[in-house]
Amino acid sequence: HQVRVIALGPPPPADRNRLLVRLQNEQIETHCLQGRNVLQAPLVWQRLSRLVAADPPVIAQSFLHHANTLAATVYPQYRIPLVGGLRVHQPGRVRSWLQRWSLARMAKVVCVSQNVADLARVRDGLNPQQALVIPNGVDLE
After folding, report:
1. I need a surface site. Which of 59, 69, 75, 109 has the fewest CB within 10 A?
2. Residuewise pLDDT in 10s, the chain (141 residues)
3. Could you write out the three-class secondary structure of the chain?
4. Between 93-103 and 65-74, two packed helices, what is the crossing angle to 10 degrees?
5. Are 80 and 58 in contact (CB under 8 A)?
6. How far is it, in rounded angstroms, from Cα 93 to Cα 99?
7. Is the full-model pTM beyond 0.85?
């Protein structure tokens, strides 16, 4: 498979870039879209759209609120199945509405627990057929 990693923000600083270096050493294509705040969302959206249009993937995966929201506006317009990642319900009206809107545009949603999947079903209208539960691998004990 040809894998590509796209981060919405700038590259991490040198003391926190081990993952980026590892990806690059494995010759995995990486892009940092340079977004630093919500005011830059239109610019980041444009950069993501151009990347996708220039080299459309077969499938896309997003994780966390901002990436899920942005990905849900880009990939479906190119008819690219989107798999989102969900770890919490977003507090606040706007975030909650955006999460609900984004989830409706995803082919599948990976949840870190059954509780998260159940909450998304109740609060965000997540279709149970969309939900995939992959338990969080961190031992909380």
Report:
1. 59
2. 889 999 999 999 999 999 999 999 999 999 999 999 989 999 999 999 999 999 999 999 999 999 999 999 999 999 999 999 998 877 888 988 999 999 999 999 999 999 999 999 999 999 999 999 998 777 766
3. CCCEEEECCCCCCHHHCHHHHHHHHCCCEEEECCCCCHHHHHHHHHHHHHHHHHCCCCCEECCCHHHHHHHHHHHHHHCCCEEEEECCCCCCHHHHHHHHHHHCCCCEEEECCHHHHHHHHHHHCCCCCCEEECCCCCCCC
4. 50
5. yes
6. 10
7. yes
- Both tokens of 132, joined, read 């995939």
Which residue's structure tokens are 């919405």?
Answer: 8
Residue with tokens 């830059």: 40
